[in-house]
Design brief:
- By secondary structure, the protein is of the alpha+beta class.
- The chain has 3 domains: 2-33; 48-99, no CATH class; 114-148, no CATH class.
- 31% of the residues lie in helices and 26% in strands.
- It has 3 helices and 10 strands, in the order ααβαβββββββββ.
- Strand 2 and strand 3 (84-88) form a beta hairpin.
- The longest helix is centred in the first third of the chain and has 32 residues, at 2-33.
- It is flat, with a radius of gyration of 25 Å.
- The protein starts with a helix and ends in a 6-residue tail after the last strand.
- Residues 1-31 form the signal peptide.
- Residues 39-58 are annotated as: Disordered.
- Keywords: Signal.
């Protein structure tokens, strides 16, 4: 009889461990698939001013003063990177937002948000609207099939 109870206890423990593992993994799935963790910034939240062309030259001190006066966070575009943004907050702190992948690219000296939607250029080639790497695909004909820019190109 004790062998039957021992097997039942073992099964109960195994089932309990599996249920606990599933509950823990299901609870972490939303955190793992959220936009912030995936690397894409959320759309501009209310209470946050994105730096425009006029705000490109704001110093940290100027941005902090502007944030305090406006009562909302102000981006310091001079501290922006491909995968980061820095905001001055109304309470006098700086808030850095880091992403796992590039969300900005610098094209012609101007920051643009990454946009991988494809567009057809005047030459007939197909390319992303804004990307960290120059790449193009043939629109057909006798041109090369694809190309990527960067050091050395290909």
């Amino acid at each position: 009889m004790s062998g039957v109870w021992s097997r039942k206890r073992f099964r109960v423990r195994v089932v309990g461990a599996l249920v606990a593992a599933m509950a823990l993994s299901v609870g972490s799935v939303p955190a793992l698939t959220s936009e912030a963790v995936a690397g894409a910034p959320a759309s501009t939240e209310s209470g946050t001013q994105r730096a425009g062309d006029d705000a490109e030259g704001l110093t940290e001190t100027e941005a902090l003063a502007k944030a305090k006066k406006a009562g909302e966070a102000v981006e310091i575009a001079s501290l922006r990177g491909e995968a980061s943004e820095v905001f001055a907050t109304p309470n006098g702190n700086l808030e850095a937002r880091e992403y796992l992948r590039p969300v900005w690219t610098r094209t012609g000296g101007v920051w643009k948000r990454i946009d991988t939607d494809l567009t057809v250029a005047d030459t007939g080639t197909v390319m992303p609207k804004a990307s960290t790497m120059d790449m193009e695909f043939s629109g057909g004909g006798k041109t090369r099939w694809c190309g990527c820019g960067g050091p050395g190109g290909s």
